[in-house]
Design a protein that fits this description.
heterodimer; A: about 120 residues; mainly alpha; about 60% helix; elongated; B: about 210 residues
Chain lengths: ~120, ~210
């Protein structure tokens, strides 16, 4: 399955969850998403999502200078962002729960035939 | 932004070039909107390189800019991924220079050229000094009684004077190489400036062997 399509739908939620956990700059957020198993996530997609969530008021942003190189732009979650996260988390759990239940029901009725190993 | 004395490493220069190209691709946006998109990117990419990654793995900076823009929900530019509409002589020059630069980068990404090129890139500061020296030598040909045996020419004055001029030339050359002083060495610089710097470098490249062959 093309997980990049799936990812597009939940990238906002994933980014909000990561930033809610702890403030982070772009590359840091990317690294934490990948460490969490979302390793197909695109570099520019994550940075663009951060910019969009900031523009929408879900995130705040502040610049931290670095001795070693260019400054880092940190993002933190706002109360509005927390509200959106709570709502989207509930939606996702409901949705994924329904899909999981559907798939499990189906697999008990017919033996799973393995398709491509992805 | 504090002005550190640290020379940019080859890796930092790569990041700066990549960001400049992303910025160029977003040139149709108002400046504040563009900076909103690109702000912090340099820091993130430097970190990526420090982490063992490379901006080369990120692919075409224009496609990267398009992905960034799409994810940020900023309206896509009118043209397709083929490239921004270019008008006027300056834009044509910029397009030709961009294409040549890309072609060169692609060529230098092919083994074993990539290793040789990476080696040469670390020698950039040596070239900055060499071309400064060549400029002073050339000046000496015109104003001094040029003798090819003199490592530091006296410019028809005194050896000390020649040394001071040479050091000043090295300073200017290094600052230009670092992109700090006019005309700048960034890909986002105006086409006329890029052409000027390219011309000067090619000229220096041609004249240096002649000066060294003394």
């Amino acid at each position: 399955m093309d997980t990049t399509q799936l990812l597009k739908g939940v990238l906002d939620l994933a980014v909000l969850a990561v930033v809610a956990d702890e403030d982070g700059y772009g590359y840091d957020v990317l690294r934490r998403l990948r460490a969490a198993g979302l390793d197909q996530v695109g570099d520019a997609s994550v940075y663009g999502t951060l910019r969009r969530l900031y523009a929408a008021g879900a995130l705040t942003s502040y610049v931290v200078p670095s001795d070693a190189g260019p400054h880092r732009k940190y993002y933190g979650i706002t109360p509005a962002g927390r509200g959106a996260l709570t709502e989207q988390r509930r939606d996702w759990l409901e949705f994924s729960g329904a899909v999981t239940a559907l798939l499990q029901e189906q697999s008990t009725r017919q033996p799973v035939t393995e398709g491509d190993p992805r | 932004m504090n002005d550190t004395v640290k020379l940019p490493t080859a890796s930092e220069a790569e990041v700066a070039d990549f960001v400049a190209r992303v910025r160029e691709r977003l040139s149709d946006l108002p400046e504040d909107e563009r900076e909103e998109l690109v702000g912090g990117l340099e820091g993130d990419l430097v970190e990526l390189q420090a982490d063992g990654g490379s901006v080369r793995e990120l692919g075409d900076p224009r496609a990267y800019a398009d992905e960034l823009r799409a994810a940020a929900g900023v309206a896509a530019r009118g043209t397709g991924p083929a490239g921004p509409p270019r008008r006027g002589a300056a834009d044509v020059v910029a397009a030709v220079l961009d294409r040549a630069h890309r072609g060169w980068d692609e060529l230098m990404a092919v083994p074993p050229l990539d290793a040789a090129w990476a080696f040469l890139v670390t020698l950039r500061p040596v070239w900055w000094c060499l071309r400064a020296w060549a400029a002073v030598q050339l000046l000496d040909v015109y104003v001094g009684n040029h003798t090819r045996s003199a490592l530091v020419p006296d410019l028809g004055h005194s050896p000390a004077f020649g040394l001071v001029v040479t050091l000043a030339a090295v300073l200017v050359s290094v600052q230009i190489g670092r992109g700090r002083w006019w005309p700048g060495n960034r890909l986002s610089a105006r086409p006329g400036r890029r052409l000027l710097l390219l011309g000067l470098n090619v000229f220096a490249l041609l004249v240096t062997p002649w000066l060294l062959a003394a």
